[in-house]
What we know:
383 residues; alpha/beta; Rossmann fold; Rna Polymerase Sigma Factor, Chain: A; 8-stranded mixed sheet; two-stranded antiparallel ribbon; globular
Amino acid sequence: MPELASDSVGVVAPQTAHFDDPLALACGKTLPSYTLVYETYGTLNAEGTNAVLICHALSGHHHAAGRHHEDDRKPGWWDAHIGPGKSIDTNRFFVVSLNNLGGCHGSTGPLSINPDTGRLWGPDFPMMTVSDWVHSQARLADRLGIERFAAVVGGSLGGMQVMQWALDYPERIAHAAVIAATPRLSAQNIAFNEVARQAIRSDPDFHDGWYGEHDTLPRRGLKLARMVGHITYLSEAAMGSKFGRDLRQDLGYGYDVEFQVESYLRHQGDTFSESFDANTYLLMTKALDYFDPAAPHGGDLAAALAPAKCPFLVVSFSTDWRFPPWRSRELVDALVRADKPVSYANIDSPHGHDAFLLPEPRYQAVFAGFMARVARDQQLEGS
Length: 383
């Protein structure tokens, strides 16, 4: 049984918030009611000034830190950065992490029952956008008694949500941390997402999204989608140092698994295909594709950022070719043109896009410094 470290938030339990107020969505449809699953770490102070919202990436969820039981071998996905004495210090901050609408880890999504039909939502679940998620998160904040977040933080797709928070609710966010993200996807990124979606949709077991009613899963399609995605999350250097051209066995001159990297990708795909919902994957990747706050402003990102009022931290990683540093600098330049306070760090890391999940020393130092500033600005005890 693994021992809980002194800097762990410990054993945590998911919580559920149900909302009966309809939520109007960007796609023109309305969710009549919905449920959000979330976790919290730390304690909300009497003034309600120490709350931090964690926004998850494509395959993320509400379990960001701690463990669900004492013998749980795997902590939350951002446990390296959340806990007593860590960058997001739970001795100072009250941390909220949720599973977004459309997710497959408890919040209302394709695996939920459609109240109008009595059957699973499945492919009928309405299309989600980053703005929809932010509006639902704001309602959760209301429910928790949080008028203003000390900081909203996220990496990758989570970073897009942070940007949207600063635009949609500028009075409710005091600081923003945008990590390994971009103000809009490149054509190449949209292409990768489309290949992944087609892998899922072309699986014979997909059944136009109604696989649940056929008592099956599009495992092959979802496995391929994850394999394609995972390649883009790692740098060539990271993949080379981890696997090189190592063989599992002698050459067989066939199509069986022979190289270690083949074995790794297949394992990742197999595991993911059993734990993630295919319709959710389609929804999440489309939300990535749609995100473009500059579009209503003729492509002028600085004009789009005009409503923002909080200081920003923007972090990129040198070998992230999915969301490369120049895309982060594009956001930084637009913030400067819009006369917004911004700090920027490009972290030298061999780990590619996935570096935002890892405890890189320089990354931790930059992030911890920013969060210490958040604590000072909010006049939190111990800062």
